[in-house]
Write a structure and sequence with these properties.
Protein name: Ligand-binding protein SH3
Oligomer: single chain
Organism: Candidatus Falkowbacteria bacterium CG10_big_fil_rev_8_21_14_0_10_39_11
Strand content: under 5%
Largest sheet: none
Low-confidence stretches: none
Keywords: Membrane, Transmembrane, Transmembrane helix
Length: 162
């Protein structure tokens, strides 16, 4: 994987943290890479991956409004991109939000499948007007649950926190 090649020579903790920041990898890839390739303990892989996820969540939740308001009026491509991205995210999240309320954000992020991580969760929180501090908390809880699930799967459920 190209992204792993970019970070594999860094200290393993930093590499794991950075992989968790990237939208195409997030912790769904950073934990298996940390355990399998870097030979980190499950606990360490979980910690650095969840820390990276929470870190990028804070940045996204607090910067998304500024970035969209800055780019949209200046660049036609940005306006089209955000229209597409917002509509796509709205369609994926709206039913869950209407049914479960803000708890849907935890559930949405906690499911370790593509397009359900902290990036999409942060975008959904923004689109549905969930207060920023609450968004960070809900998304972080979802990231911890997803991290736990991925860690169990990656470690094979054996000697998880050895």
């Amino acid at each position: 994987m190209f992204v792993v090649d970019l970070v594999k020579n860094l200290p393993h903790e930093l590499a794991t943290f950075l992989l968790a920041l990237i939208p195409i990898t997030e912790l769904r890839a950073s934990i298996p890479v940390a355990i399998g390739l870097f030979k980190m303990s499950a606990l360490s892989a979980f910690f650095w991956s969840v820390l990276g996820s929470i870190f990028i969540t804070i940045i996204l939740v607090y910067m998304l409004d500024f970035v969209t308001k800055f780019l949209r009026p200046r660049f036609k491509w940005a306006d089209k991109f955000f229209d597409w991205l917002f509509e796509r995210t709205r369609k994926r999240f709206e039913g869950k939000y209407l049914t479960y309320g803000e708890i849907a954000l935890i559930i949405f992020v906690a499911i370790p499948l593509p397009v359900t991580g902290v990036w999409t969760g942060s975008l959904a929180a923004y689109l549905f007007g969930i207060e920023r501090k609450k968004s960070v908390l809900l998304i972080s809880i979802g990231a911890m649950i997803a991290g736990f699930i991925v860690t169990i799967i990656s470690a094979g459920g054996v000697a998880l926190f050895a």
